[in-house]
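To: structure subgroup
Subject: Chain for Friday's discussion

All,

I'm putting the inputs and outputs inline so they're searchable in the archive.
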Amino acid sequence: MIEEIWQYEFLRNAFIAGILIGFTAPLLGVFIVVRRLSLIADALSHVTLAGIAASLLLGKNFAYFANWNPLYAGMGFSVAGALLVEKLRSVYKHYQELAIPIILSGGIGLSVIFISLADGFNTDLFSYLFGSVSAVSRQDVWTVLAIACVVIGIVILLYKELFLLSFDEEYAMISGIRAKLIHFIFIVLVALVIAASMRIVGVLLISSLMTLPVAASIRIAKGFKQAIGYSILFGELSVIAGLLLSYQLDLAPGGTIVILAILILLIVIMWKKWKRG
């Protein structure tokens, strides 16, 4: 298998993109879980699907859009959905959780409309739904790499602000932190990572990669930074092992990665229970 990775470009692309996603998704996932916004990844993934379906529909009906990468349309829709979530959270100040199901419903509705206009599913859209090793292009890898560099750089630069806003937003605002700007930057990063992860994990499963490694890490971590470290470790294990197994057994990579993440979570829970007594 290792020799085949170096031999075939599509396998190299898939592994490079997978390693980058396995790092960035759990990294942001820790902040998402602490903020109790775990479902936001589901909402934005469905909005992203609407963008993908819209791009494929345009490519089918207009020659000008035929060579466009649907990933970019998905990113645009995802960022727009993220900004709408933040806007709705400010509108419903006492019921901020309503923003997520509103955007989720809108994303599903638009996806169904665009898919029906395109006369149902095709191979391209199916690969975006559930992930595909062979669908990852070199262009996708460069896109994922650029997003990963931006995410890591901003998290390092704004770590203190993100940490304070995640645990005590009121204190952070009193301390002079520009909460709205930080929220805006963070939600855009989440949207970009979700859109970039679709080729490997798939639209319907990306939220799992953002939450399952975090769920496992918080069971054994003794601090926030340790939780980030464990989350990234579990995320990478899930992605790398999932890609290897999916290629060897001819399985969908997204589903394989998610099932391995669940197994890691169960092992951590059982280990923690055994350690206690």
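Points worth raising on Friday:
The radius of gyration is 19 Å.
Residues 9-34 form the longest helix (26 residues).

D.
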